[in-house]
């Protein structure tokens, strides 16, 4: 049976990773799509697990060959989802979740109107700024860039099917679980 595609987005520091990994732990039949990126690998990441790390040249070649379902530039790096990977999973009846920034997510919706777009929002912009600074992983210039992207992403989230406010992680996971279960049974 062909499956529904779920696309999750959320701004940096919103706790999106915690909500998604909490959901995946409780729902092991779902897996996260592995994207390609030109961003440098972080110390806690692994090639082929978190991302496929490509050079800009390799990435651009895949764009020219029309291999991406969607791709977008985010914080000066390119990110993309291979079309073949997603189609193979869905046709094989696999439950798949894409975690994309908002421009890519809306591109997926244009091509696959049945895809369900879910945005994980911070309780407030101030709270998000606080969380982002407390990560201590980025310098001030990067933080400023990410904050202006956050504003744009919140604006684009108005086109999403669902918005979950991550005010409390367990509650947000439960809400995500309910949305996905309801939508998955409504194919
Ligand atoms: P990070 O560099 O923190 O891993 O991810 C930065 C942003 O890129 C996040 O918002 C993440 O959701 C998004 N992202 C990851 N993979 C893809 C992808 O394949 N396509 C698009 N459009 N965004 C992606």
Q: What's the structural domain tally?
A: 1
- Uncertain spans, ≥5 residues at pLDDT below 50? none
CATH topology: Rossmann fold
Q: Spell out which ligands are present.
A: guanosine-5'-monophosphate
Name the shape in a single word: globular
Tell me the number of helical segments per DSSP (H or I, 4 or more residues long).
7
> In percent, how helical is the residue content?
40-55%
Strand order of the largest sheet: 2-7-1-8-9
Largest sheet features? 5 strands, parallel
Rg, rounded, reads: 16 Å
- Oligomerization state of this entry? single chain
Number of strands: 9
CATH class (first level) name: Alpha Beta
How far is it from the N-terminal to the C-terminal residue, by CA? 10 Å
- Classify the beta-strand content into a percent band: 15-25%
Mean pLDDT: 93
List the helices and strands and how they pair.
Layout: E1 5-10, H1 16-26, E2 30-32, E3 35-37, E4 51-53, H2 56-64, E5 68-74, E6 77-82, H3 83-91, E7 95-99, H4 102-111, E8 116-121, H5 125-134, H6 140-156, E9 162-165, H7 169-184
Parallel strand pairs: 1-7, 1-8, 2-7, 3-4, 8-9
Antiparallel strand pairs: 3-6, 5-6
The structure holds guanosine-5'-monophosphate.
The site of guanosine-5'-monophosphate has 12 residues, from strand 5 and strand 6.
Describe the protein in words.
The strands form 2 sheets. The chain has a 5-stranded parallel β-sheet, with helices on both faces. With 187 residues, it is an alpha/beta fold. The longest helix has 17 residues, at 140-156. The termini are close together. It has helices spanning 16-26, 56-64, 83-91, 102-111, 125-134, 140-156, 169-184, and strands spanning 5-10, 30-32, 35-37, 51-53, 68-74, 77-82, 95-99, 116-121, 162-165. 28% of the residues are buried. The protein has one domain (5-184): 3-Layer(aba) Sandwich (Rossmann fold), CATH 3.40.50.300. Helix 1 crosses helix 7 (169-184). The mean pLDDT is 93. The structure holds guanosine-5'-monophosphate. Residues 35, 39, 70, 72, 74, 79-81, 99-101, 104 line the site of guanosine-5'-monophosphate (5GP).
């Amino acid at each position: 049976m062909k499956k529904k595609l779920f696309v999750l987005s959320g701004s940096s520091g919103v706790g999106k990773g915690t909500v998604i990994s909490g959901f995946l732990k409780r729902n092991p039949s779902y897996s996260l799509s592995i994207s390609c990126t030109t961003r440098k690998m972080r110390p806690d990441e692994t090639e082929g697990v978190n991302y496929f790390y490509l050079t800009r040249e390799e990435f651009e070649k895949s764009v020219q060959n029309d291999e991406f379902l969607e791709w977008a530039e985010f914080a000066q790096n390119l990110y993309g989802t291979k079309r073949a990977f997603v189609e193979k999973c869905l046709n094989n009846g696999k439950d798949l979740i894409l975690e994309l920034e908002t421009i890519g997510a809306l591109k997926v919706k244009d091509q696959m109107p049945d895809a369900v777009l879910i945005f994980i929002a911070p309780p407030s912009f101030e709270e998000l700024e606080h969380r982002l600074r407390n990560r201590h992983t980025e310098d001030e210039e990067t933080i400023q860039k990410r904050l202006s992207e956050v504003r744009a992403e919140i604006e684009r989230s108005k086109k999403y099917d669902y918005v979950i406010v991550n005010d409390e992680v367990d509650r947000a996971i439960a809400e995500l679980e309910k949305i996905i279960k309801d939508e998955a049974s409504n194919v």
